[in-house]
Specification:
Layout: E1 2-4, E2 10-12, H1 34-43, E3 53-61, E4 64-72, H2 81-85, E5 91-93, E6 99-101, H3 111-115, E7 122-123, E8 130-131, H4 137-140
Antiparallel strand pairs: 1-2, 3-4, 5-6, 7-8
Length: about 140
């Protein structure tokens, strides 16, 4: 987002009053995993782990049963338990509300995984450090 100062100069908006969040209507999810595939492609997520995944829940009993889907990922909590428990401060909350991580600081202790109520963190098998949805911060920062 940009703020126009005058007719010839446009400066980036550096206001910290913007807070990002996800809105996902799980009633419309058909379980196609397009979100999972897109995320894996965008972040080169290794096979066997996911930053975004689709949880399936079956309701009812046969023959009156149905399958419901729920997209699961980091919820970028306001008071994130993973951030609070991280001993190296590799997880942090940005001014815009995005919970991000610095895997160079991570020691792979898995405390964040145990603290997260959404099961949104995993250990990257290649780096042996924690990883999670970072709200595609590299796209938000453009």
């Amino acid at each position: 987002m940009a703020v126009e100062k005058n007719a010839t100069t446009i400066e980036p908006n550096t206001s910290t009053d913007v807070k990002y969040g996800f809105v996902i209507d799980n009633r419309k999810c058909i379980g196609c995993h397009a979100c999972t595939v897109a995320c894996k492609s965008e972040h080169d997520v290794p096979v066997g782990v996911n930053r975004t995944f689709v949880k399936q829940v079956e309701k009812g009993t046969f023959p009156d049963s149905k399958r419901l889907f729920s997209v699961m990922r980091c919820n970028h909590c306001t008071d994130a338990p993973c951030v609070n428990i991280c001993p190296t401060e590799s997880l942090f909350t940005r001014d815009d509300g995005i919970v991000d991580f610095d895997n160079d600081r991570c020691i792979g202790c898995k405390s964040c995984m145990q603290a997260c109520p959404y099961d949104a963190l995993y250990i990257d098998p290649q780096t042996e450090t924690a990883a999670k949805c970072n709200y595609c911060a590299h796209r938000v920062d453009v």
